[in-house]
Amino acid sequence: MEKEKTISGSEAIQRARNLKFVSGAYFTLLHLTCNLKTKECGQLVKVERCRVRPSLREDTFQLDGDLYFPYEDLDTGQPKMCFKKLMRYIAFPPNYELLKINWFDGTDD
Predict the structure, then answer these.
(1) Nearest one of 77, 88, 32, 27 to 52, comparing CA atoms
(2) What span, in angstroms and rounded, lies between the C-alpha atoms of 41 and 83?
(3) Sheet holding 87-91, edge to edge
(4) pTM of this prediction?
């Protein structure tokens, strides 16, 4: 059985942010949901074509804005965000191979 390829959370976020400098580039993201208003959590969501978007103003968040990862779904044009620590897999160009995001190796906040 082939070992799953991993990436640290901080590297995943940095690589996703760097794609904004590459015309037409996007990443694929799989993350767990957590809606604090409806108390619904735990569904795995896959967004095929994403780009990092600017964060919202700090006063719009219920929690610290650094906990969120803002992105745009390029297929729908909708602005979205998820909790950083709920990001599970990410894939980058050119081959879009899914990489498991490892938040618990002691190097990420």
Answers:
(1) 27
(2) 11
(3) 6-8, 99-102, 87-91, 27-35, 40-52, 68-73, 78-83
(4) 0.83
The neighbour count for residue 33, using CB atoms within 10 Å, is: 14
- What phi and psi values does residue 57 have, to the nearest 5 degrees? -60, 145
Residue-wise pLDDT for 5-25, tens only, equals: 999 999 999 999 999 899 999
| DSSP letter assigned to residue 35 | E
For residue 40, give both structure tokens.
């619904």
Residue 64 has a pLDDT of 62
Closest Cα partner for 69 from 105, 24, 25, 15? Answer: 15
Round to whole Å and give the CA distance between 56 and 94: 29
Report the distance separating Cα 60 and Cα 3, nearest Å: 41
